[in-house]
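From the shared-data thread, chain only:
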Amino acid sequence: MYSYIFPVICTYIFYKCKLDRRNKMKRLLSICIFLLSFVIIIQAFERPAHEAIMFFPIDPTVYFTTAETKLSLQPKKKETRYVVDWIVTSSLDRTAYLRQDVSLLFANGRLVATQTKWKENGKSLIQQKQLEQKGSRLFQAISYHQGELHNGNDIRSSQKMSGDVLYVIDSSFAPLQSFRKPTTAEQKTWTNTLNKQTQTIVNKTANQMGNILQADDYYHLYLPELVQYNEQPFMDLTTNETKIMIGNLWEGLYKNYFLGIKKQNGSIESPIGSTVPLILIQKDYSKLFVVTETADGELVILKQLLEFTQ
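Structure, as tokens:
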């Protein structure tokens, strides 16, 4: 819109100015430079929301009518690779000032892909991605759906998580197949194998943290397990306190993990290839830690102080 108005204003000034030609051109040039800087400033100030998730007090009257993350396997391979469809959908019960969804997909304990989408003055979002993979894998996806609602100066939010799990068996000894829960002896064997492979990867960070913190002082869980606390309170927290903790956790995850991991040398590294984040919540609820190992093997520890006042 601003790029359209800009040349129109300049043209209008050119014809309406009653100065002589030389002064007219100087005046026009000065005004155009001013307007151009104004347009740039406007555009800079209008970039906001999609670059950060911000937690606001929960509005209990607002809810998601749909919030789903779904993984599925395409039946046919592309040469030596198979294709996993990854769909994330959500819909709020009303139009929000800002709607945003973020999703993370892990395979055998490491991040393989991300998705994010935002919309101003919207209710519904849908994202879809296809990933070419090979080898037997345990896929785990988790998504965070948020709506930001404005009523004058009062800003509230609504949130929900969703997730999915898919085992894909890609072996020369068996046909390509996928399942969520094993139903045959073969599938049960593969489930145990893939679970052990994944646990070997993610337990490495837990073991390292055991040398740094007193494990008995913390509750611990891995990020995909967080979905179960959508409506269920965490341990001895109330449901509302649980939602506050989760909302602030995702705000920190988006900024310090999803957008890039800051390493000890100050560089920012893509989270792709990093391990499933381990969440350590101190039992007095004063703070939590998010722990991951980057693709090149560096242990990264993120700290967040907990407050439960809205």
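The longest strand covers residues 82-107.
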